[in-house]
Design goal:
The protein is mostly helical and about 210 residues long. Helices cover about 65% and strands about 0% of the residues.
């Protein structure tokens, strides 16, 4: 049976974890992917020992930061996209939300990639949703029939790579529109055979 003291300790621990994760996102955004755990502990106003009790290593903290970003920014977009009667519009919603999230969290993504925390499990909800939207769009005749889900995986990697060579802002939206136009069956040229994406090789495909 939990006592009031135990409940308070657990609530304090949960608040500390939340504060540390939010601090990590802020510090990476401001300092860059080489920010240290000491920087994050100071921003969260906790001791480094407290940080390590909640997150034994940098990889776990980065995964928690990405999970928080997904919950706040991507999960609502997935729900909206899957609930849209127009599958191509839903796909546009999801692609825009994803690139927007990566743009805002680019330093956290870079740190996660550098540390090995960016695994294939991270983008599974996105890819599952995209697969369903593509299938719906092809059935509705609004997405070219020769598109495969891996194509979107590669396209998202291409869009994400743009962020490193663009000024801050919404310049990436131009290329999302271009990519979406390329998915239309109208005037489409036949595609060469698809080359399967190496799921575990995050160095080749950044999303």
């Amino acid at each position: 049976m939990l006592t009031d003291g135990t409940r308070r300790l657990r609530a304090d621990a949960a608040r500390n974890s939340e504060r540390i994760v939010q601090a990590a996102r802020e510090v990476y955004a401001e300092i860059g992917p080489d920010a240290t755990l000491d920087d994050i502990a100071r921003r969260a106003d906790v001791g480094i020992a407290t940080l390590y009790r909640r997150f034994p290593n940098k990889e776990e903290l980065l995964r928690a930061a990405l999970d928080q970003s997904i919950a706040e920014q991507l999960s609502p977009a997935i729900e909206q996209a899957l609930g849209d009667d127009d599958p191509k519009r839903g796909l546009a919603t999801l692609m825009e939300a994803t690139v927007s999230m990566v743009a805002r969290e680019r330093n956290t993504f870079a740190a996660a990639h550098n540390s090995g925390a960016l695994t294939t499990e991270f983008n599974a909800p996105f890819l599952d949703s995209v697969t369903l939207l593509i299938h719906r769009g092809q059935q509705a005749g609004v997405i070219r029939a020769d598109l495969v889900p891996d194509d979107i995986h590669v396209i998202m990697g291409m869009l994400a790579s743009l962020l490193a060579c663009m000024d801050s802002g919404d310049g990436w939206r131009r290329y999302v529109v271009l990519m979406l136009d390329a998915l239309s069956p109208t005037g489409a040229s036949p595609l060469p055979a698809a080359d399967p994406v190496r799921r575990g090789d995050t160095g080749r495909c950044s999303f």
